[in-house]
Amino acid sequence: MYFDALECLPVGFEPKEADLAPVGSRYDGQIAVFGREFQEKLSNYREFLVGSGAIGCEMLKNWAMMGIASGENGVIHVTDMDTIEKSNLNRQFLFRPADVGKLKSDTAAEAVAKMNPDIAGKIVTHQDRVGLETEVVYNDEFYESIDGVTNALDNVVARKYMDQRCVFYRKPLLESGTLGTKGNTQVVIPHLTESYSASQDPAEKQIPICTLKNFPHAIEHTIQWARDLFEGLFTQPAESVNAYLSTPDYIDKAFATVGDSVKIETLNKIRSFLVTDKPMAFADCVAWARKNFEELYNNAPQQLLFNFPADAVTSSGQPFWSPPKRVPTAVTFDPASDLHIDFIMAAANLHAFNYGLKGSRDRDQIKQLAAAVTVPKFVPKSGVKIQVNENEDPGAGVESDADGLSALVASMPDPAEFAGVRLAPADFEKDDDSNFHIDFITAASNLRASNYGIEPEDRFRTKQIAGKIIPAIATTTSLVTGLVCLELYKLIGSVSRDGQTVRKVDDYKNGFINLALPFFGFSEPIPPVKTKCNDSEFTEWDSFDYDHDITLQELIDDFEKTHKLELTMVSSGVSMLYASFYSKKKLESRLPMKVSELVKSVTGKDVPAHTKWVMLDVCCEDAEGEDVEVPAIHVNVRN
User: 289 and 348 in contact (C-beta within 8 Å)?
Assistant: First the structure.
C-alpha cells in the first residue's frame, strides 16, 4: 500500500534549506522534514486532551515524541476522571500493573515525561468530567488560553459537549474513535468545516420488541431480554418505590401522560415491593426468586402456547411457528440443576440488595429453600393479548379498567407509614464479578434459551454482549492516533507568518479504516452549511459579538439599525428574557436592564463569576414580517 501526506508540510512559512539542517536535538528528523520554525510552533502549542484511556495514552506518547508543548510557552492539559483498572493494561500501554488504582491522567503524564524530559512540567493534569458542572474549571479564560482540543472520549454525549464548546470559542477540534478493527478520524476547523454535531451516525438497529418478548431465535435476543429483565426486577421497581415515598402527589404527577395499563403495572409493582412481597429475611428473597422462575420459564411459555398452539396457522394458512419463530417449551424447576440454582441465587441476592438484607452464597442452603417453596399450578388465561408483529400496538384491544385502577390507587399504602424507608436500585455494573449482575443475566438468558432451543452462552460471552463490549485492538488505536497527529501537523502548519490561515478545506482529511478488510478511506471534511441573512451569509461558527454588557434596548436598537431586523424574542438557555408580546409594564422594567441584570432578574441567579460571555438566542423578523434565522448573540458581561 502507498500512502503519503505531503499536505502536512507547512504552508505560508515553507522552510528553506538552511532551516532544515540538524541542530543536534532529538527532533532533528522532524526538523529535516518540516523545518526549525515549524518545530518551534510545535513546541509552543497549547492543546487540551480530553481523556487518557486507550486513544489518550497513544496520543500523549506521540505528542511526546513530536515535542508538542516542549517549548517555553507550550502546555498540554489532559483530563480523565477514571482510575486505572487491571483490564486497561492490555491496551493502554502507558500503564503498568503497579499503577492499578492510580489516576489515569496523572500516571499517563508521568510516563510520557520519562519518555521525553523536555515536556516534564508541561502537562497539567485534571480529574474533572467535561460538562456543565465543570464549566467553573474549564471556563472562558481556560479556552482562551489554548490553541485547540483533541478528544479521546468513549461516549457521544461528552463528544457533543466538547464540540459545542469548540464552536462557541472557535477552537479546532480533532475527533477520533475505534470499534474493534474499525476506526475513524474527523477534523473540525472553525469556519472551514462543519462541526462534529452537524451530522449524526444512523441509529443503532434495535431488536423488535415482539422478538424479545415472545419469539427469540438467537442468543443475542435472550441476552437482551435478560438485560431488560434485570432493569425490570432490580432497578426500576426500587426507583419507583423511592419516588412514590418521596414525591408528594406522586400518582398524579408521575402518570399524567400515561395509559391506565402502565399505571396499573407500576402501582402493582410498588405495592408488591412495599407490602405484599416485602422480604423480611433472605429466605423470603429465595421464595420470591423461585416464584419469578416459575412465572418466567414455565407459566409464560405455557400461556404463549395456549394463545398460539404448536400447530397454529396464520390467516393465510401458513404455520404460525415458521422460522425464524421457535416453538417454546416450559421449563420445570429442578433443584439439582446448576443453571436453575444459579438463577435463584443471583435473583435472591439482588432482591436482598434492594432491601439492604444480607445475602448468601451457600448453594446447599439456597437449594433447600427453593425446593421448599410451593408454587400454584398454572392455569392459562383467555383474552391475553400477545404482540406478534413489530408494528402492532401491544396495547390495542386492551380495555381500560377505570374501576380496577381506582381500587388499586385506594389500596396503596400511605407513604407516611414508611418514613425514612428507601430501597437501593441495582445500577448495572458489568465489571464487578461479586455483584451478581452478570451472573443473573447469564442464568436468565440461558434459561430463556433453553425455553426456545437456542444454544446457551458462557458467562464471558454473555458479559460481552450484555455490556456491549467490543474488544479494543491496539493496532487500530495506534493507526487512528497517527492519523489524528497528521491532521495536527496541518493545523500547526496552516498559519502563515502574518497570522493568516492559508489552508483550504480539501487540505484536511477525515479518515475511515477497517483493518479486518483491510480498508483505508479518506474524504474531505464537509464545509459548514451557510444561511443567508439579508445580504450576508453565516454558518454555525458565526455569532453577533458585543464586547460590553449591553442593555436590552440597545440590543433591539442595534439590530434594527445595523441588520434591519426586529427582535421578537430573546432567551438565555431555557429562560425567556424578552418577547415583543410582553405587557407594557414588563417591557418598561426590562428594556433598560443590562444583559447580566436581565439574566439575574429572570432566573433569580447571578451570571456565574467564571462566565465572561453570555449566549443569547433570538428570533427576528424582517421588514416584511417574515421570520429570519440569525446567529447566536455573545455578550461580554464583564466589560
Answer: yes
Contact 68, 76 (CB under 8 A): yes
Count of CB atoms situated within 10 Å of the CB of 251: 17
pLDDT in tens, 495-513: 766 666 778 899 999 999 9
Of the candidates 492, 515, 529, 531, the residue with the CA atom closest to the CA atom of residue 187: 492
Longest CA span, the chain: 93
CA dist., res. 251 & res. 318, Å (int): 46
Active site residues: 210
Contact 126, 114 (CB under 8 A): no
Residues 410-439 pLDDT 10s: 889 999 899 889 999 999 998 888 999 999
- Residue 434's alpha-carbon distances to 346, 350, 356, in angstroms, are 10, 11, 16
Give the per-residue pLDDT at 406: 85
| DSSP-derived pairing of the beta strands 519-523 and 75-79 | unpaired
> Cell 513530536, residue?
66
pLDDT of residue 469: 72
SS3 161: helix
pTM passes above 0.85 = no
What is the per-residue pLDDT across 45-104, written as a single tens digit (0 to 9) for each?
A: 999 999 999 999 999 999 999 999 999 999 999 999 999 988 888 889 999 999 999 999
Beta strands 148-151 and 123-126, pairing class: unpaired
In angstroms, the Cα distances linking 592 to 48, 573, 597, 600, 613 are: 40, 21, 10, 14, 20
Predicted confidence (pLDDT) at residue 398 exceeds the cutoff of 50: no
Q: pLDDT category, 28, cuts 50, 70, 90? A: very high
Question: Which residues, in sequence order, are CB contacts of 512 under 8 Å at separation 6+?
Answer: 183, 184, 519, 520, 521, 522, 523
Distance from C-alpha of 255 to C-alpha of 261, rounded to nearest angstrom: 11
**Amino acid (one-letter) located at 366:** I
Cis peptide before 97 (omega within 30 of 0): no
Question: Averaged over 393-402, what is the pLDDT?
Answer: 54
Write a three-state SS string for 324-350: CCCCCCCCCCCCCCHHHHHHHHHHHHH
2-39 in b/e form (b: 16+ CB < 10 A) is eeeeebbebbebebeeebeeeeeeebeebbeebbbbbb
Query: Any idea what the Cα angle at residue 498 is, between residues 187 and 141, rounded to 5°?
Result: 60
- Do 36 and 5 form a contact (C-beta atoms < 8 A)? no
Element (H, E) at 456: none
Cβ 223 vs Cβ 441: under 8 Å: yes
Q: Which of 603, 616, 601 is nearest to 569 (CA)?
A: 616
Region at 301 (left for phi over 0; alpha for psi -120 to 50; beta for the rest):
alpha
